[in-house]
Automatic annotation (TrEMBL):
It comes from Arachis hypogaea (Peanut). Its EC number is 2.1.1.220. Gene3D superfamilies: 3.10.330.20, Vaccinia Virus protein VP39. Residues 69-126 form the tRNA (adenine(58)-N(1))-methyltransferase catalytic subunit TRM61 C-terminal domain. The keyword ATP-binding does not apply. GO terms for cellular component: nucleus; tRNA (m1A) methyltransferase complex. Keywords: Methyltransferase, Nucleus, S-adenosyl-L-methionine, Transferase, tRNA processing. SUPFAM superfamilies: S-adenosyl-L-methionine-dependent methyltransferases. This is tRNA (adenine(58)-N(1))-methyltransferase. PANTHER family: TRNA (ADENINE(58)-N(1))-METHYLTRANSFERASE (PTHR12133), TRNA (ADENINE(58)-N(1))-METHYLTRANSFERASE CATALYTIC SUBUNIT TRMT61A (PTHR12133:SF2). It is found in: Nucleus. Its main location: nucleus. It is an enzyme of class 2 (transferase).
Length: 127
């Protein structure tokens, strides 16, 4: 699970910096979680994307490769994180997570003990 410091909560106008986790949206069925490192590149069928060019851009930016292809750099929200996770185990999707949380009457301030060997998809959405 990601440990997020409350002082550095994500906002949609925050700029990408070195070491940030970014969800790279390549196509509607292809998203990747990438940690930004200034000296690294992402290579895919759309071209080569230099991480150094991502730094300083706001989340949601459209960036172009050397070949003219593009990807979107998105902030890691619980919904996107669920889509990015490896599907080695059965994961819960947003509709199922909403049902479970409402059925259990989990609200902010509740103490929830959750365990498992899965992907952590439900855990990312707990208040």
């Amino acid at each position: 699970m990601l440990a997020i410091d409350p002082a550095t909560k994500l906002s949609f106008n925050r700029l990408i910096s070195n070491g940030d986790l970014v969800i790279v949206y390549e196509r509607h069925d292809n998203l990747k979680a990438v940690t930004v490192s200034e000296s690294t590149v992402l290579q895919n069928r759309f071209g080569v994307f230099k991480h150094s060019e991502w730094i300083g851009k706001p989340f949601g930016s459209k960036v172009f490769s050397n070949k003219g292809g593009f990807v979107y750099l998105l902030a890691p929200t619980p919904e996107l994180w669920t889509l990015v996770l490896s599907h080695r185990t059965q994961i819960l999707y947003i509709a199922d997570i909403s049902f479970v949380i409402m059925y259990l009457e989990v609200v902010p301030g509740c103490l929830v003990l959750e365990s498992g060997t899965g992907s952590g998809s439900l855990t990312t959405s707990l208040p």
